[in-house]
Amino acid sequence: MMQHLTNDILLDYVHGELSPADDASVYAHIEHCQPCRTEYDAEVALGEMLRAQAAREERELPSSVKAEIWERVRAGKPALWNRAAAWLRPGVALPLAAALAIAAYFGSTYISPQGAPSIEASYYLQDHAAMNSTVPFSDRASSVNPVDLETAAAVDTQQTAVNVQPASYTADANP
């Protein structure tokens, strides 16, 4: 047979704080062990006696005090800070922040200019014509005189000419 149950185990059993396996083993032990059953009954009786005493000594507030408390609760207005803090609750603040973010995102597209700035097509035509007129052997370079191009090229090469000395190379013939 098992040893007798301790007072702590009995208290845990009375308050339902044991695991199901321990609860079942304590129940089986109490059913077969008379001294432990007597101790269990004494603990249950003591708990009932304490609850009954607490219920007898419980006092209620007089009805006039209750009425005064409820009157002050209903008459009291929340402070300005408390009303402002109510707007900071997640149930209010989160949808408000989401609406502001959406408004800022979509509102900025209506305020700012739409897309890239447009460039007139005539600009591209003029630029293309200017580039083609500078190509010397282009079919469309008819407005440029070839003689003028040759003289311009000669002047350009004279201005950019660099005196370059021919390099002398020596090779060792030693094998």
Describe the protein's architecture and organization:
The chain is mostly helical and 175 residues long. Among the domains are: 7-57, no CATH class; 64-100, no CATH class. The chain has eight helices and no strands. The chain has helices at residues 7-14, 20-32, 34-57, 63-75, 80-86, 90-111, 121-134, 146-160. Helix 1 packs across helix 3 and helix 2 crosses helix 3 (34-57). The termini are far apart.
Supply the key terms:
175 residues, mainly alpha, single chain, elongated, 8 helices
Q: Topology, pairings included?
A:
Layout: H1 7-14, H2 20-32, H3 34-57, H4 63-75, H5 80-86, H6 90-111, H7 121-134, H8 146-160
Task: Provide a short characterization of the protein structure.
With 175 residues, the protein is mainly alpha-helical. Among the domains are: 7-57, no CATH class; 64-100, no CATH class. It has eight helices and no strands.
